[in-house]
Structures are given as structure tokens and as C-alpha cells.
Amino acid sequence: MLKFLVDRSQTLYNIDMKELHNPVLLSEVLANLEPHPGEKYLDLTAGYGGHASKILDVTQNYKDSCLIDRDEFAVEYLKSKFPLEVRLLNTDFYSAVLQLLECGKTFDIILADFGVSSPQLDMEERGFSFKNDGPLDMRMDKRQTKTAEQIVNHCSERELTEIFIKYGEEKPGHAKLIAREIVHSRPIKTTKELADIVLRKSRYSKIHPATKIFQAIRIVVNDELEEIEKTLPLLPKLLNKNGRLGIISFHSLEDRLVKDFFKDASSHGEESELRIITKKPISAKNTELGINPRARSAKLRVAVRN
């Protein structure tokens, strides 16, 4: 059984790589992006290489491909998984795109998967999940200073309310109730403490009441929507003619940005940069959901460069 060991911040992680991360909508990605031998591939959120390994197995063009991730742990694993000739960038995808544009790089396939990886969720040290008790961290890039603990313990009640409404899509009344309880319960140090606060002020629902609160905080910590919004208009410039762009989103805020971008980029007649392939987003089939429940909210949209 393959193990991957890496020392991070005095902690040795011993991870079973077979259990690391199941790439969502893999067959749908391959069917719609249609990789061919020799094509150049750019992965904006390579993670643990689930999509990349299958696409590069087809293209076999490692030297002209580029894998990006701002999570250092993921990049360390990618170094062990792929040949040295694959270009790896340990940075956010907006900064990487600017760098690639400056170098004049173009690609035949671009893929972005905006989901949080399984290791980020499963490692309690990362503080992404309320299912495991860990520090309030939620940083995708451990080099940045802003953490979930800072948001939770230093934002005002009004600021927290606005965060939960805007990024968690919570109802205003409930968002304000949770924000007030958080302020009254400070200091809050762990994911379990925060989840318990949300739970005692929430009604029963099919999903855990803390889901939207954790989503909202994570988005703010990592500037996720701002990064997506800045990056999307630049992507056609990185695509060769007839190049394919695939984007996987996991909640309505992300998907709305992608949908609006595709609509705008394809609505200028002969001068349109893109041609939409997926009129409606593609979702996971029941067979995939049976083995990978985290795919339940994934949506794939694909467009082609004119």
C-alpha cells in the first residue's frame, strides 16, 4: 500500500494515497474535454492530480503542461507523482495565470476544480471541517496570515452577519443570531466549538447547520470568489483555437460566476471568445455518488475557444 510522508509544521502526515482524493466527474471531464495525444494541459487547481493524471495519460505531453495549486502539501505530492518535466506552480491560480500570460503560454485544455480537496477536509490540523475537531485555520495556502480564527474572533457582529449572508447564503435573521452567539462566546479556538455554537442556535435540517457558516468563513479566508472573478476573463487568452475550458463548481455562488462568464464570453457573435458546450451544467450520476458523496454538489461547465 503506497504511503506518502511529509513533514509540515513539525507534524508528520502518513497518508494512504489510495484514499487521498477521488476526482469528481472524472468520466464527464474526459468525455467533454476530449484530450488528444500531444495537447498542452493546464490544471488551475491540480490538488492531488486525480484529473491531471488521467488527462496526461492521454496527452503524454508533460513538458508543455502546467499544474497549479496553492496548497504546499498538494504540490509536494504532485512532485512525487509526475515527471520532473511537468511545470508545477505553488501559488494561487490568479497569480499563476498572470505569470503564464506574461510568458506567452497557451494550452489546448484548461481545467479548474473549485472544490476543497479530501485531505484538506479530512486533516483536522487544517481546520476545514466541523466533522473533525481542529484549530480554526481553513487556509488553503499556509503561508498566508489570515485564518478562520481571526475572522471568528475579531470581526464585529455586523461583519459576521454580512459574511454569513453573502458567502453562506444564510437567511438574515439566522445569520444575525449566529453572529451574535459567536461574539458572546469568544474566544473560540476550534472547529468543534464553532460548530456546537451554530448547532445550538439552529433548527434541524438535512445538512448540518454549520455547513453554510463554515463555507462562508472559508471563502473569506481564502478570497475564493474574488480570485475566481478576476481569473475567469483571462482564461480565453490562455486557450489555443478550439481549446477546451472545463470548470467544476460546488455551490451556487461559484456556479453563478462561471455561468455569467460563459454567457458573456459567448454572446458577441463572430467576435465571441467562447462557444458553450454544456447548455446546462453536468452533475454526478448516482453510480459516482454511491462511492464519492462529496460529488453531490459538483457541477461541470465546458466551453470551447473560437
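Second entry:
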Amino acid sequence: MSYLESRIRRLPLVIGPDPRRVLLRPFIPSLIVKPLAAQEVNPRVLSLFSRVMHLDENAVEAKLAEVFADFHERHQKIHDIFSERFEQIRSFLPTDLELSESRRLLLGSYFTNEYSLESTALFNPGMVAAPDQSGVKAGELRFFLSLRATGEGHISSITFRSGIVNLEGEIRMDPVSRYVCQPRPQPAARYDTATFLRKLQELGVEYADARSALHGLPESFLMEDLVNHVRRLRTSADEPSVRQAGERALMLARANYTVRFTDGLDISEKILFPFAPSEVNGIEDARFTRFQEADGSISYTATYTAYDGNVVLPQILQTRDFHEFSIRTLNGPAIRNKGLALFPKKINGHYVMLGRQDGENIHLMFSDHLHFWYESQILLRPSQPWEFVQLGNCGPPIETSAGWLVITHGVGPMRKYCLGAVLLDLNDPSRILGRLREPLLRPASDEREGYVPNVVYSCGALLHGKNIILPYAVSDTSSRFAVVPLADLLNEMKT
């Protein structure tokens, strides 16, 4: 153990997965459970409908009362959810009869299921100061913690916790609600055809196919325009590759959307669950930063990875209040691979971001536009045995008086993950001022077992007073906190 590691204090607090936190999701019999499993008529759907229709009204009301008795305490507004679910599947049902409310609700319940968001893991935490600091005592800071929740089918989503940290690094977590709530998504207002053409090429679509697929659309279009356009392509386009390009354009459009939560929710009740087709296999590793604009205004910006089972799509998420979130795709040839992290402010008039475009080294990027990134340069290569396999960042850089502090992760023998750190110049982040030779944090003896053994990992630390508060994942299963004295960390990098 190095001197620095001996100075780090691990807090006893453990944030583990809670299988009781369940979300109501659409369910179609015979289909694999996925967030966006295709709504379709199949023999089992029709058989189930027929069985419910053969029940007399007394049996319907009795069964519905049993369902409500079983589940009403586990969910808020379950009546409204069943009613909405029925409307979603109404077009699949072979009848025009007007059904009683009880039968509609019962049918809605048969096409709904509970999904345990974090039954498998609750990990890869990131930490930011909360927007509202009212009522906090002197020396304390209210924070929000974002976490990757993973449940059945290894589907990941973004969930939140909150708490208070004092100057000594002691943490009090707020109570966690029993309920979770999913917001309603809305498509982006308009889409730019030229941007779609470039993005399709970045995703590997041939230029000729992309151009043919988008031919006939105006310079900017609405979601409705694209849906109708792609519907025509499915029957009129001769080349399968052109039809596939159209479907990919539709996927991109659906990956740009806004969600808004209902008023009055606690932060722990808010869940960002996969919505777009590009996210069907999960939303991974959100790296939130409290971004300050040149005019002093504050927004919270996070990069994350959307995964549809085949394609990794880097996305960006923005909010000012953790109530409404805008989700957009990141564009440009420099946007590749996972692990993007945005600096918390512009440097010399440019947005700056870290990435790992080649899967091995940490890269540095500059851009005049937040959503477009064209070039990157290698900033750090693996240099120590504990990071020989690959390097990556562990969240957005932290501004200190000595420079930009970047928490890193390195992978060594037996795929063991350790955390490190590097210091970059405040005005020229391509200039390295210091770097740890030994790990900042490595898996302790009681942190080596889990869904993925021998891993410590973070998506964002926080500077408060003289300490770095470092939330970190334990073997891709749960999350803990470490308190790192900033002065000791900086001194170790200088030596």
C-alpha cells in the first residue's frame, strides 16, 4: 500500500441494489422482455384476449379486485397505468365492442408486468452538487448521486439518490422512496436533414444509401414527416440497404427527445429508463457535470452510452433542475466508443471533452459546438503495469487551484480495475502536470466479489472543502464512498 492509499478513508456506507423498487412496464406474452419489445399481434395475445372476454362481469370484477389488492401499495396511480396500457393494446384486439371499465383495466393488467430496476446491481456512481442548497448548514453540501441500475435481462437505466456531505467527508444519505416513476417522452421539435446524412455515415451507412433514404425530405423535418417517409420507403425502395438506412434514420430521430417528470417527485423516485430504439439494451454510465456557461448560468450535462445490442451510440443529456431532461445524440467522427466526459466549463472559448476512441488510451477533444466533435488527440497512454490493458476516465475533470484533476481507471492483470489520477493544466489541458505511478484506489479484500469481480470504478467525484469525495462501484454490484485528502493527492502526483 502506498502512502497516499494509507491516507484515503473508506466510508462504511454501502448503497446496494434494492429489488423492491419496481417499475410497471408493457408486457407482451411470448416476447423477450425488453424495454421496447415490438407491440405485435401473436397467437398468445389473441388467446389471452379471448380468455378474458369469456369471463362474466362478476368474475372480471373479482379478478380485478384481487389484482388491485396485490399491487396497489407497490405503485402510485396503478389504475391510470392499467387504463393507459389498455389503450396501447386496443388496436391489437379483434373487437369493436365497448368494454366495461373493469374489463379494460383487467386487460391492461394482463399486458403489464413489474420490472425490478436494480435487482442485479446498483453501481458506477457519479456525484454533483444539487441545484438547491437551501436549508443546508454551513460547511455542508447537498449532492445528487446518479447510479447505473441493472435488472432482468441486463437492462441498465439511470437512477438517483441524494444526501449531505460535510467538510470532514461524512455523508448522510436521504431516505429512498419505495416508488419509482418514469417520465413521458416527447420527440425533438425539428430535425436537420444534413446532420442526419452525416450521422448515418458515422454509423457505417454508405453515403449513397443514406442520401437515397433521405431524398424527398425538406431541410428540416418533424418526427411525423420522417415516420411517413420511412413508411413509404418500406414499400417503394428497391434496395434493402436503402430501406435499412431509412430505419436507421428513424432510430436516430427517436434517440433525440425530451422527458419531463410530474411535479412533486423526490429525486429517488425519478428513473431514466431506456426509451429510444437505440437504448433498447440499456443506458450505461452517465457522467454528470455541473456545467457553468460564460454568463454564469448553470446546467447539468451528462454523457452516457446507449446500446441497442449491436451499436454503441454516445448520447448527451442536459437538465437545469433534474425535472426536465433533454436527450440528444453526439455527432462527428471523434465520437466513438464509450467513456466520454465533458469538462465543467469552456476553456479558451471551446468545449472540451475526454474520451477513449481507440478503446485503450485517453483522448482529448475540443469543439465549438457541444453536439459536434470532429478531432481528438491522445492525451494519456497506459504506462504502469496496473493499467497496461487500457486506460479510461472516471468522470468529468475537477477544477482545483493546481489544475484539472482527472480520476482515471486502469485495467491490469486478470482484468483487475484500479483507480488512478492525473493533473492537467487549467488553460491548456493537453499539458500534463502530474500523474500517479501507483493506484489511488484498488479493490479491497471485501470488494473483490460481485457481478464482475475485482473492479472499482466511478463516473464522477466531487471536491468539497479540502477533500475529494469519491463514490465508486464495487465489482459492478454496489457502491461505496472514499474520502481523499486533496493536498496528499496533489503532493503524490508531484513526486
